[in-house]
Amino acid sequence: MGFFDNIFGQNDNAEQPKETLQTPSLPICKTEHELIEQFGGIAFDKQIDLGDVIGSNNWNVDMTKGEISFGADLVFPIQVLGTFSHSSQTWLWAWANTKSELPESIMQQAQQLRKYGTENEIDLLIINQFDATNADLHLIGSVASGMFNTSGYYIADYGEGAMVVTIQSEKVDKIRQQNHHRIATVFPQLISQFEMNHNLALTNYLIAKDYQISENGTKLVATKNGQTITAEFDELSRLTKLNG
Is the pLDDT of residue 15 over 80? Predict the structure, then answer.
């Protein structure tokens, strides 16, 4: 019996999903690099808050209700992006997984990513199934989390494979930390995992966190609530120094 044939128990304590799943007004990205430059920083940032809420708790999914639970008091609405097979090392988008008979209501973000990919000719978002790595799962989760302003993403490993979902949770959003010093931890992690223009990625991350930014050549200065972040880059826009 496959994963999608298993429906876990229902739970009435789930947070109610937000009513806003319409396609947001989005910046135009034409490559995977541009996607992670645009959305990666803030997505990685939110993962810390999500991790603080769910801890190391085991997960269960109820596909009929579109929920993931990490215990009786931690039940959240989800959107299913797709699945990864450990045996074939391939990614399959939720909208291409016709055998699963997933409810359309929990594939809205996956469909919106497909539409965005079609409009901007990004193969990652429109090819039904492709060879993938663990890094690709984080790439897809990060892009969706940033693009749709979710509370985070989760990679739910079920043995034969893993399912990537986004999570919407007021409980996670309420504890969101405006930790100034977090940037110096999150951003190096981001650029160590993905290739990108460091200057653009940091700028987008700081804008998403409501910093005011000024640039002078290869130096960036960002301020918020009296606190300052400074960054320096080489001629190839690679980060050489980050203080704050």
Answer: no
Which residue is associated with the tokens 């007004």? 25
**CA 24, 31, 172, 64 torsion-angle sign:** positive
The closest of 60, 82, 68, 84 to 162, measured between CA atoms, is 84
Spatial separation of the C-alpha atoms in residues 86 and 192, rounded to whole Å: 24
Q: Which of 201, 200, 225 has the alpha carbon at shortest distance from 212?
A: 225
Residues 6+ apart with CB under 8 A from 206: 41, 183, 213, 222, 229
Tokens matching residue 117: 């990919």
- Tokens 């960002």 sit at which residue? 222
Give CA–CA dist 51/112, Å, rounded.
Answer: 26
pTM to 2 decimals? 0.87
Is the predicted pLDDT of residue 163 greater than 80, yes or no?
yes
- Judged by DSSP in three states, 233 sits in strand
Whether the Cβ atoms of residue 91 and residue 137 lie closer than 8 Å to each other? yes
Report d(CA 50, CA 169) in Å as an integer: 9
The sheet carrying 219-224 orders its strands as 212-216, 219-224, 227-233, 239-243
Is it the case that residue 41 has pLDDT exceeding 70?
A: yes
Looking at the predicted structure, is the pLDDT value of residue 5 above 50?
no
Q: Report the pLDDT averaged over residues 40-50.
A: 96
The helix (H) or strand (E) run that includes residue 62 is strand 60-62
Mean pLDDT of 88-116: 95
Contact 222, 229 (CB under 8 A): yes
CA 89 – CA 162 distance, rounded (Å): 11
